[in-house]
Amino acid sequence: MLKMYQQILVEERAAGLEPKFGLPHEWSPEFMAYCKDKGEMIPLVFTKLLTALASGVTSRHFKTGTEADLIGYILSRQDASVTMDQLFRQSYRLAGGDVYLAILAIENILGDNWRHPDRDKLAVTRKLASISNFYQGKGDKYGAWYHFHGIMLYGYVRGGFRAALIGGIETAGSHVLGSAHDASDEQQEDYVNSTGGKIGARLAKVLRERLFEAFTPDKNYCDPNVYLDLSEDFRDRIEYVESTDFKAELDEARMWLKPLYRDYLDCHVEIIYNDYSGQLNSKYIVKKDHVDFKKGKSKPILINSVHELVKARAFISGCLASETPVGTKAFGGARLPERVWVDAE
Question: Concatenated DSSP letters for 99-138?
Fold first, then answer.
């Protein structure tokens, strides 16, 4: 992905737009003096940028002046068509080659609506292409864009280590506070946080050391199929959540799944299991259709791994409950979950 940004810098430089690092926002000398006089620790602990990002107020206090034009560009495009390279290039042009302001402007137009309950349905969000892979196509597209550019901006200014630390804190807070999105969405935001900070820090190094001058351009670097892998199966990295619906056990060649409270009929089952390292690997997968689970009875699913079977994760979806489709009432009014995942070690 870093090469995508470098490709844009090189192409725009050839067109006469010289890249500039930019001038990040800092606390004013007057505020620093005031805090020192009052014994306040804020400027020593939190930078001005981090304070604004954490509060979601960069769009209110850190305006670049290019936001309206950038929004106009987005709204002129087809739904789900605006890619990361296209949006950065347009913002970069509007910012006159100032990379800091280019990233900040993108964060600002997203940050305006981060609390909106239907943020994925907003006009700007609808124009954006997906940049993250979600299990069964369900996910928070807005959140991926917003988190990536926020932590990228911080990594650009403060470096990858600090960005990783802040991203980890944000991730923990997000999980503790909960959200309207399911656990797989949260896990994708974790990886967005991790990637964004690294990209921001490396892009800053490109600007500071003028590494773009020695960069060998290739237009393919701006192809989303090159800098993104939306076909990646990330389910091996979803954090462990103990299932309340199934109990799972492993033997040498099978995963045994037992539903605890109800029947699950005609299910689609996918099981990811460990590779030689003993860790889950999405490339190691077994898929079964039309699987019936009876309440309280263990069902074996053959895995037959070439490595010692020590860990597996089952994803169960598309089930019927007593011949009643998922999503309709059954079992005394209880609803079957749309999907279940369960771990065994």
Answer: HHHHHHHHHHHHHTTTT-TTGGGSHHHHHBPP-S--GGG-
Which residues, listed in sequence order, are joined to residue 247 by a DSSP beta bridge? 258
Kindly report the number of other CB atoms within 10 A of residue 21's CB atom. 16
In which residue are the tokens 């991926």 written? 144
- The 10s digit of each residue's pLDDT in 125-182 is 999 998 876 544 455 688 788 888 888 888 888 774 444 444 443 433 332 223 334 3
**What's the rounded Cα separation, in Å, for the pair 306 and 275?**
9
Map out the domains of the chain with their CATH numbers: 2-227 (no CATH), 236-344 (2.60.40)
Q: How far is CA 29 from CA 33, 52, 100, 142, 157, in A?
A: 6, 18, 21, 36, 19
**Run of H or E including 184:** helix 183-208
Contact 24, 100 (CB under 8 A): yes
Segment holding 50, helix H or strand E:
helix 48-55
| pLDDT value for 239 | 60
CB 239 within 8 A of CB 25: no
Say which residue the tokens 């699913």 belong to.
Answer: 301
**CA distance readout (Å), 162 to 50, 167, 183, 213, 220:** 10, 8, 25, 27, 31
User: CA torsion 82→1→144→191, rounded to 10°?
Assistant: 160
- Cα end-to-end span (Å), the chain: 35
